[in-house]
Amino acid sequence: MRFSRDDRTILANWWFTVDKVFVIAVFILMAAGVLVSLAASPAVAVKKGLGVYYFVERHIVFAGLGAVVMLGVSLLSPLGVRRVSIALAGLGLISLAFVLYAGNEVNGARRWIILAGQSFQPSEIYKPVFVVVSAWLLSIGQGGGGRRTPSPQARAGLISAVLLFLFTAALLLLQPDVGQTVLLSLVWGVLFLLSGQSLKWVAGLGLAGLASLVGAYFSFAHVRARVERFFDPASGDNYQSERALQSFLEGGFWGRGPGEGTIKTKL
Q: Sign of torsion, CA 103 121 34 254?
């Protein structure tokens, strides 16, 4: 495929502006994911009474859809990406609120919505658009936290970014989903730092984050149990860590090769 720099079509503009190395890296990761699914999921599918390659086929379908969406979004202009992200962020917030009342409850948490026979987590779809919208709002308020008299526009952008983060964190904690909350908090904190805010505000944000982690430890029993099991595996259910150690003991550092492992076939 050959394009001229005088060509102003959408596809030609995409070809000369897209990060080709990054796109190739994403496709390599997707292929690696399919390979890992092919190696690990058949045993799980058989245990559940499903077809041997049930999860592999689902993985390929969703990976293909994800690739189409990724390439489609990469054709958009920065303004188009922002507009789509704002619309999806609004829909995502509605979904996060909806799941609290009508979501599918699993192990005491409401995080999933069942649509057309398929379950999905609104938070997973919301994460990328949350990052884009937060980055845009913080760019509007760039440096506003470090000026004595920030402009009204900068102040509005910074306040909107903070409110978006707090509202998102509150909806996630009500599910409860502490893991997603911590992940989005870390990403938002890095964006806050990169937006040129005062280091005093950044330090305060870091201290607030540490205080929140301590609060989560004392407020959520499952968080406390996971932390305690991490430092003392013998204190409770350590199924995952035992399986991991078994796999290293039986397969060695390099493993046995794709599909050759036996740990996954054992109950």
A: negative
